[in-house]
Amino acid sequence: EEDILWLAGTRAVRFDYGGTKWASYPGAVGPPYQDPENGLWFPNASGGTVVFNKETWQASPEIEWPVYRSSQGTLWTGGGGGIRSSAGQAWRSHPGILDSIQTITQTRDGRLWFTGKRKDRSVVACYDGEHWKTYTDEDWGKGISLGRKVVESPTGDLWFLPYLGARLVGYGLIRFDGMRWYHYTARDVWRKEIRSEMANRIYDLEVDRTGTVWVGTGKGLWSFDGTTWKPFEEENGPDGRKIVKIIAAQDSSLWYACALTRDVPGGIFRYKAGAWTAYTPADGLAGNDVWTAF
Fold this sequence. Notes:
Largest sheet: 4 strands, antiparallel
Radius of gyration: 20 Å
Strand content: over 45%
Low-confidence stretches: none
Number of helices: 3
Structural class: mainly beta
Helix content: under 10%
């Protein structure tokens, strides 16, 4: 909004387009969370969090990552071995729900969804403003840990991106429609045995305005229209590539960042109105090993 670009890694880096000036902040690692009421929050390398309010930095060792401001104005964080919240005054603890938090998401109906761990098991917790309800991997698939990303579809379904397993192991994709959990894998749903091992490694997912789910795997792109999974194998598209980032742009186009593998080059692909455009070093791209975009 202010022509400022933030990059996050082992430290936070700030680039001011107006003044063409770089600044580096050791200890603030990312990616950050943009609080509508209180600047930018970063995980702190020494523990807790640190917030930047456009002028000064303030460390908050008692506030653990992640941080999220609900539409009601309440600040939700980790800390004290569980979930904490503050409506602007004293902090309130919510014991026994989660031991640690990985993501916090608010859906359009106002409910808050938390992914995390309790006694070393993956747990999803929902808070409706009064009551808590929890789900475990007994509901969606034992041993599958959720929490890399949570996306709400236009129909209200929640899509969960599991953590990747060791080596070439992948756990597919999880959907919750409010009543039932669904587990999608390449082997038993997509019927692509030849590529099931890498196709189960989901690197990113996005839901467009029509409700179509787009999934980037280690072996290409898939879409789901609510009924059928479809692999994208069109000419000039990212077929067989390792798709690590998907962006749904405001002009209804979709952008895909593809990483380099031993067999297939990466690059950037754009999909709009049924047509693909590929961007490679021949078009001016700095390299063909692309791991993120925004």
